[in-house]
Design a protein that fits this description.
166 residues; alpha+beta; Immunoglobulin-like; globular
Length: 166
């Protein structure tokens, strides 16, 4: 077998790791209000969004993939950025908001184009974020997202003139 054939076989049978690409999408709510959202979807089909709501809260939403899995009721996923401490709370130690297919964390509030948020800073400058969560059937799952490109997408969605104090 020559080198070209070996490389071809390697590429066919070797799993390919694909880094999640961050981008900005526009979402429209039921009142036709448009929101810019920094968005990524990982290879497992889970998605992660960062956006500013209509009162200036910066939110991070983790959503399950399209499978039939549902999050356990009254259970917030944990998240860990790189090797930082594991967390499952919003700012001011508030619980997450959760539904059957998503959970949302408030990362900070914008006032006069400024926010104090170590969580947002870590999301924008970290390497990976890992979510661990319990499903309605009692089983646990884990998924990871690359944070490569998250800073550019997040600033584009929230405003390039935003000042973030960790």
């Amino acid at each position: 077998m020559n080198l070209t054939q070996k490389i071809s076989l390697f590429l066919i049978f070797c799993p390919i790791l694909v880094q999640a690409d961050w981008g900005v999408v526009t979402q429209t709510d039921t009142n036709n209000a448009k929101t810019q959202v920094a968005y990524t979807k990982n290879s497992d089909g889970y998605s992660l969004e960062i956006y500013k709501d209509n009162v200036g809260a910066i939110r991070s939403r983790f959503s399950l993939n399209a499978e039939l899995d549902m999050l356990a009721k009254r259970s917030c996923p944990t998240y860990q950025i790189d090797s930082r401490l594991i967390d499952n709370r919003s700012i001011n130690d508030a619980p997450c908001l959760t539904d059957l297919s998503w959970s949302e964390f408030i990362l900070g509030y914008i006032a006069d184009n400024n926010t104090a948020s170590s969580r947002l800073n870590a999301l924008m400058n970290g390497g990976t974020i890992t979510f661990r969560f319990m499903l309605e059937n009692g089983s646990y799952k884990e998924t990871k997202f690359s944070l490569s490109g998250s800073k550019k997408a997040t600033l584009s969605a929230l405003g390039t003139n935003l000042t973030i104090t960790p």
